[in-house]
Design brief:
By secondary structure, this protein is mostly helical. It has one domain. The chain is built from three helices and no strands. The termini are far apart.
C-alpha cells in the first residue's frame, strides 16, 4: 500500500480512483452551464424586452396623440380667430380690431385650464381610489 492508495477507493491526492468524476458523469458543467445561461437570457428577454416594447408603443401613441390634439386645437383656435375677424361684419373694426385676438386668447386659456383640471382631478381620483381602505362596516 505504499503506492498512495488508502485501499478505500481514494488516492492520497484527493481524487477518487474509481473512474470519471461526478461532473463528467452528469454531462459536464459546460452543458448545464450553457443551459442555465440560455434560461437566464430567455428570462431576461421575456421580463425586460417585452415590457419595454409595450412601454415604447404606449409612448409612441401618446406622443402621436398629443401632436394630433395640439395641431387640431391650434387649427380650431385659428378658425375662431378668422370667424371673429371675417363673419362679424364691422363689429370688430377700427379701435376694436384687437378684440378677436383677446377673445381667441381667452378661449385658448380656457382649453388649457380644462386640460389641466381634467389631468389633475383624474390623477388624484385614481390615487385616492387606490389608497382608500374599506371601512369594514
Amino acid at each position: 500500500m505504499g503506492d498512495g492508495h488508502r485501499g478505500d477507493g481514494h488516492r492520497g491526492d484527493g481524487h477518487r480512483g474509481d473512474g470519471p468524476g461526478l461532473l463528467h458523469r452528469l454531462g459536464g458543467l459546460g452543458e448545464n452551464g450553457n443551459e442555465l445561461a440560455g434560461l437566464i437570457v430567455g428570462y431576461l428577454k421575456q421580463e425586460t424586452l417585452g415590457p419595454l416594447r409595450g412601454l415604447a408603443r404606449f409612448v409612441v401613441f401618446g406622443v402621436a396623440g398629443s401632436v394630433a390634439l395640439s395641431g387640431g386645437t391650434t387649427l380650431l383656435l385659428l378658425a375662431v380667430l378668422r370667424a371673429l375677424q371675417g363673419e362679424t361684419g364691422t363689429t370688430f373694426s377700427g379701435d376694436r380690431s384687437w378684440l378677436p385676438y383677446l377673445i381667441t386668447a381667452v378661449v385658448a386659456l380656457a382649453v388649457v385650464a380644462l386640460a389641466v383640471w381634467r389631468t389633475v382631478s383624474g390623477a388624484s381620483r385614481r390615487r385616492g381610489a387606490r389608497t382608500a381602505a374599506p371601512t369594514g362596516r
